[in-house]
């Protein structure tokens, strides 16, 4: 299996892929056409953004099985065409999302506290306190557009600041404990700080333009760590001049090259950019939000792990496995609080024929392999604290295949685990909280104990 590396990345990529038996070739200088001439010899490529992977390239790549992009977005690849050729696309947003979250927060704090201005003035011998009086985040509303890997990472960083975090996304139900999903209109009505975390698509190209900006009710701050072309820079400059936009932190620019390797190709700096450069309330960085010492390594590791997964290499304990291997396999039970459990049980027995015992009722069923499985229905007395810390009057119990493995994974994912695992003749139990604080009981059952 031969892999062609088209950009220089962390050495672990080479090392680990070689250990797995892949042949790794590197070519960091050939033109796209030169690479096209030899690409049919390769089953995998690893690329950052050196050139676009278009139809011509994909037609030449007759034996390609995967394209691994050492970064987050896939916009430099003709995704649809690649997928039509059964080429697996691998990206590594898990590797740089923390970096982007921290960078966006850093930009925000720098802007709010006039640190760039204060620092450069002081270095010129100026001691300007009043002119550099800061603004506090406390009590502000941060609006995030695009609530995927990067948007979520930024929202996570905002925990601990007393801010309301709203998100808008074209996907439904992406909001979580760190951001409330709202309509675009609501976000535009309430936002003090807007942070973009969308991919560059037809719909997001030039999204932040004069008309979009005018729909915000309050003057706001803008952060863009997504893609430069999502913002119309001339309109941004106008809004900064009019005071509708209070300041901007831009890690990406409309004028940077597709490879992100340099600013632009023309001879003169675009006028809007020249204006931005003169503004004290504008902070610019050269597409480095996801570019940290740590992310270089993490991006490479994520790529290796995903290639390993693609080729079915060993079950590394740390690797996230498909949950079917040890995750939820069914509903283990439904527990709910009642004023009088005995009375309720009698009522269900009389009217619905449910044969209750001291625990409630056991539903018996068989799984696909024909094993006996059970699900409990159990009324609990209303003063029970078994569902604590949840205050809800019910608790779900989920059947799981390997409680310890699942709990280890959940801990790594930052899920709140409540208490310690307990073991009984009828199985092992562990408890977690979902994002709304509902307590879930995880049960690795021994159904035979009920027979
Ligand atoms: N500056 C950097 O160094 C850096 C690093 C990493 C990622 N990025 C950029 O950040 C952006 C987000 O990356 P990600 O990994 O979080 O992507 P993602 O796919 O995980 O999340 C993007 C989210 O945006 C949503 N979305 C798409 N179109 C939308 C629209 N028109 N309106 C509202 N929501 C929309 C998607 O539904 C998705 O939930 C990309 O542009 C990526 O290239 C920049």
UniProtKB/TrEMBL annotation:
InterPro entries referenced in this protein's UniProt entry, alphabetically: D-isomer_2_OHA_DH_cat_dom (IPR006139), D-isomer_DH_NAD-bd (IPR006140), Glyas_Bleomycin-R_OHBP_Dase (IPR029068), Glyas_Fos-R_dOase_dom (IPR004360), NAD(P)-bd_dom_sf (IPR036291), VOC_core (IPR037523)
Please state every residue range assigned to the domain named VOC.
Answer: 330-445
| A Pfam family annotated for this UniProt entry | 2-Hacid_dh_C
What are the protein's UniProt keywords?
A: Oxidoreductase
Looking at the record's lineage, which domain of life comes first?
Answer: Bacteria
Please state which protein family the record places this protein in: Belongs to the D-isomer specific 2-hydroxyacid dehydrogenase family.
Mind telling me what this protein is named?
VOC domain-containing protein
Protein source organism? Planktosalinus lacus
